[in-house]
Amino acid sequence: MINSHQALSDTVISNGYCVGCGACAVPEQSPFKILMDSYGQYRAHMDDSPVFGRTDSSYEELCPFSSSAPNEDDIAKQYYAETCEHHPQAGYYKGVYVGHVAEDEFRTRGSSGGMGTWVLHELLDKKRVDYVIHVRSETADKDLNNIPFKYQVSRTLDEVRLGGKSRYYPIELSQVLKTVRDQPGRYAVVGVPCFIKSVRLLQAQDPILAERIKYCVGLVCGHLKSAHYAESLAWQMGIPPSELEAIDFRIKDPSQPANRYSTYAKGPSGEKVVPTNNLFGADWGAGTFKYKACDFCDDVFAETADVVLGDAWLPEYVQDSDGTNVVITRNSDIQLLIENARNDGRLALDDLSIEKAVQSQDAGLRHRKISIGYRLHCEKEANAWVPTKRTKPSRTLNPRHEMKRQRLRTELRDLSHKSFLVAKKTGDLSVYTTAMTPVYNRYLIQKRSFLRRTYFLVKKTLKAMIGR
Questions:
Q1: Distance from C-alpha of 328 to C-alpha of 331, rounded to nearest angstrom
Q2: Rounded mean pLDDT of 180-195?
Q3: pLDDT tens, position by position, 27-48
């Protein structure tokens, strides 16, 4: 019989679905360790020495992309079914809000409305937790942008504030979760959907983690990026990968809408700030430098988290360059903290319908909840192993031309990793841009076609409604 860790290696890891979360490396005597590969992605690597793998852990049931692990619906039901309503796109929900932090500099220092850091800060300040697990610069000094970034344990309110901003950079949880096991206390942990799911799976097997991790704070997620994404942006700004010292992916521009931000990079020669949409490969929908696993995740709203926070990509809010958050609560404690702060004027939040919250992430949900079926079908057609997902494999998509766009996204994802690695080895950025440009141009043609078709469909629908 194949043991659990070998089965995980033969399925998830060998087929490229490891997202590098680190859950499999947390159990004592685990045969796994998390290392960064040549593409700048964290991956689990198995040590086949007989001294390892002697624990009772079921490694397949710890992995968020394993077919043996419970899915997001099954996990969330245990925590929220009795107190929350359920939406098929967003998961369970109690309170739904839109707005921003009105006190201090949370909004100014955040990528959006400042709610992510505020929730963690509030949990620590109100003595609901003793420690916060979040992503900070490894140097942990006042320069918030120093790389590399890593999960760290914050003990003070000032340290929590250092964890503001989105980090489109690979990180992993194994080392910091070992600290939780060794250091008693109450913890809050923040992460993207698959990382929060891995924490829940660990809690199901490890009673110490189940007791000590009191709150999971989720982030609405498009996908994870490799370290090469940051390097590619900085290199275009005149800072080669070997010289990149710091990066900020979300610099707000008061003259632009919230989705028109800039990128900051720092090297020995100085600092640069460039509008992100001027940089090749920064089109989020194209999916360059994306982990393969992200194309096989069907969770956008961190459905296993106690609260989830994202950008309010809605027409009525996106024009505010300071940024606006969508917030969905599932935990009563966090709901109460938010309601009290709103009543005190510390939060500028309006109630939002769950349908509008879903609309704020429309593109991500279409890619992750619908088009995933076609990507699963393509993998199965190639006789490759695929994880079991809540969405079933589908031979077609509607509209049909969306299938071509999905194939182009997969090609861009894979080609970005391969071509940039060659560019780094040769010291020539044009190797990457030259290889990617023709594929990206074909992708843009499909994207424009999709937008035109959508426009005429909406126009036709509105005309029919008015006619009635």
A1: 10
A2: 97
A3: 998 999 999 999 999 999 998 7
- Nearest residue to 231 via CA among 278, 282, 166: 282
Topology of domain 72-225+286-364, CATH: Aspartate Aminotransferase; domain 2 (3.40.640)
Contact (CB, 8 A) for 265 and 302: no
CA-to-CA separations, 240 to 233, 290, 373, 429, in angstroms, rounded: 10, 21, 39, 9
Q: Which residues pair with 271 in a beta bridge?
A: 266
Q: Per the omega criterion (within 30 degrees of 0), is the bond before 148 cis?
A: yes
CA distances from 225 to 137, 204, 292 (A): 17, 28, 10
Domain ranges of the chain: 4-62, 72-225+286-364, 383-467
328 forms bridges with which residues in the sheet?
Answer: 96, 308
**What is the reported pLDDT for 47?**
85
Asked if 347 and 106 touch (Cβ cutoff 8 Å), the reply is no
Residue 1's pLDDT band (cuts 50, 70, 90): very low
User: What is the DSSP code string of 188-246?
Assistant: EEEE-HHHHHHHHHHHHH-HHHHHHEEEEEEE--S--B-HHHHHHHHHHTT--GGG--E
Name which of 297, 293, 288 is nearest 418 in CA terms: 288
Gap between the Cα atoms of 201 and 23, Å rounded: 8
Task: Note the pLDDT of residue 147.
Answer: 73
Q: Which residues of 305-315 are buried (b: 16+ CB within 10 A; e: fewer)?
A: bbbbbbbbbbe
Tokens of 235: 């290199």
pLDDT per position as a tens digit, 330-350 = 999 999 999 999 999 999 999
Backbone angles phi, psi at 32, to 5 degrees: -105, 145
Q: Give yes or no for a contact between 167 and 249, defined as CB atoms under 8 angstroms apart.
A: yes
Mean pLDDT for the stretch of residues 251-256: 90
426's CB contacts (< 8 A; 6+ apart) are none
Q: Are 127 and 87 in contact (CB under 8 A)?
A: no
**For residues 170-183, b (16+ Cβ closer than 10 Å) or e, as one string?**
bbbbbebbbebeee
Could you tell me the maximum CA-CA distance found in the chain, to the nearest angstrom?
A: 74
Tokens 């003070």 correspond to 156
| Prediction pTM value | 0.92
